[in-house]
Write a structure and sequence with these properties.
Blueprint (H helix, E strand, L loop, with lengths): L1 H21 L15 H30 L13 H14 L3 H19 L1 H18 L7 H21 L3 H8 L1 H4 L1 H36 L2 H20 L5 H60 L10
Helix pairs in contact: 2-9, 2-10, 2-11, 3-7, 3-9, 3-11, 4-6, 5-6, 7-9, 9-11, 10-11
C-alpha cells in the first residue's frame, strides 16, 4: 500500500514538474499593448510602415559597411598589427554587448528627438545668438552658421557618447601614442563602423523583426480602437455645450483617425510581405558580416605575422 502511494506521489510530482518545465515563462516586465489608445491607433499605420522601412534601411547599411571591411588594412600606415587585431576583435564583440547596445538605443532616441525638433531648437539657439550679435553691434545673420554648428556639435557629442561604451576605443586610447595620430583616427572610424555593423545584424535587425511582428498582432485591435475613438469624439461633440474651437479640434481628430484607418490595410499588407522574409534576411546579413569579418581578421593576422587562425592552446 505504501509503495502504491509513493508511486502515485512520484508520478504526480513528475507530472507537475513537467508541466512547469513546458510552460514558457512570461518575459518581465510585461508591457501592455497600446492598441486601445487613440493616439497610438492614429499613428499605427505610419509607424508600422516606418518599422518595415527601417529594417530594409538597416540591412542596406550593414551591406555597405561590411563591403568596406576589406579596405581597412590599406587605410593604416605601418601600425602595430597586433594592436589593430585586438581593436578590431573588441569592436566586433562590443556591437553585441549590453553596454554598447544600451548606449546606442539611448543615442537613437536622442537623434530621433533632435530630428523631430530640429527647426524649433535651431530657431531658439539662432535667436539667442542673433540677440548677442546685435548687442555687440554686429548686423549679420547668424542663422545658417548657428544651425550648422548646432547639428555638428550634437553629432560629435553623440559620437563621443557611444565611443565611451565601446571597449575598442579604450584599446585605441591605450596605444594612441604608438599608433600615431593618423592611424589612431583611422582606427577609431573603423572601430565605429565594425561595432555598428555588428550591432545592426545581431541586435537591431532582430529587434525590428520582433517589433514588426508584435505590431502585426495588433491590427484588429487597432481597427476597433479607431472605431471606438471616432464614436467617442462624436459623443463628445454632441454632449453638453461645446465651443466651436472644441468641435473643430474634435473633428480634426476624427479626420486623422479616418486617414489612418484608410491606410491601415495597405500598410499591414506591405509589412506582412517584409515579415515573411525577415528571418532569411537576418541570417544572410549575419553570414555576410561574419564572412567579411573573418577575412578582415585573417588579413590583419597575416600582416602581424600570426597564423591564419588562433591556436586553441
Amino acid at each position: 500500500m505504501n509503495r502504491t502511494r509513493l508511486l502515485a506521489s512520484a508520478l504526480f510530482l513528475a507530472g507537475h514538474l513537467f508541466a512547469l518545465g513546458c510552460s514558457a515563462p512570461k518575459p518581465e516586465p510585461e508591457i501592455a499593448s497600446s492598441a486601445p489608445q487613440s493616439g497610438y491607433a492614429e499613428r499605427y499605420p505610419a509607424e508600422l510602415q516606418a518599422t518595415a522601412t527601417s529594417f530594409s534601411e538597416r540591412e542596406d547599411v550593414a551591406k555597405r559597411v561590411t563591403g568596406q571591411f576589406q579596405g581597412y588594412p590599406d587605410q593604416l600606415k605601418e601600425p602595430d598589427w597586433k594592436v589593430v587585431l585586438d581593436v578590431t576583435a573588441q569592436a566586433d564583440a562590443a556591437g553585441r554587448s549590453y553596454d554598447y547596445v544600451e548606449r546606442v538605443r539611448a543615442v537613437d532616441g536622442a537623434v530621433a528627438f533632435f530630428n523631430d525638433n530640429k527647426e524649433d531648437l535651431t530657431r531658439k539657439v539662432s535667436g539667442a545668438a542673433q540677440y548677442v550679435a546685435k548687442q555687440k553691434g554686429c548686423d549679420v545673420d547668424v542663422t545658417g552658421a548657428t544651425s550648422h554648428a548646432l547639428e555638428e556639435g550634437v553629432e560629435r557629442q553623440l559620437e563621443k557618447y557611444v565611443r565611451d561604451r565601446n571597449e575598442a576605443h579604450r584599446r585605441i586610447d591605450r596605444h594612441r601614442a604608438a599608433l600615431g595620430k593618423e592611424n589612431a583616427a583611422a582606427l577609431e572610424k573603423q572601430a565605429d563602423a565594425v561595432s555598428f555593423a555588428s550591432y545592426v545584424v545581431h541586435i537591431d535587425m532582430v529587434e525590428h523583426k520582433l517589433r514588426l511582428r508584435r505590431m502585426l498582432e495588433e491590427i484588429e485591435a487597432v481597427k476597433a480602437s479607431i472605431d471606438v475613438s471616432v464614436e467617442a469624439e462624436r459623443t463628445f461633440q454632441s454632449s453638453g455645450k461645446r465651443t466651436d474651437e472644441e468641435r473643430k479640434a474634435s473633428e480634426a481628430r476624427i479626420e486623422e483617425l479616418g486617414r489612418s484607418k484608410a491606410t491601415l490595410d495597405s500598410s499591414a499588407t506591405q509589412a506582412k510581405q517584409i515579415d515573411e522574409t525577415m528571418d532569411e534576411r537576418i541570417a544572410a546579413a549575419q553570414k555576410s558580416y561574419r564572412e567579411a569579418m573573418d577575412r578582415l581578421l585573417a588579413t590583419i593576422r597575416k600582416n602581424a605575422g600570426l597564423p591564419a587562425e588562433p591556436s586553441d592552446g
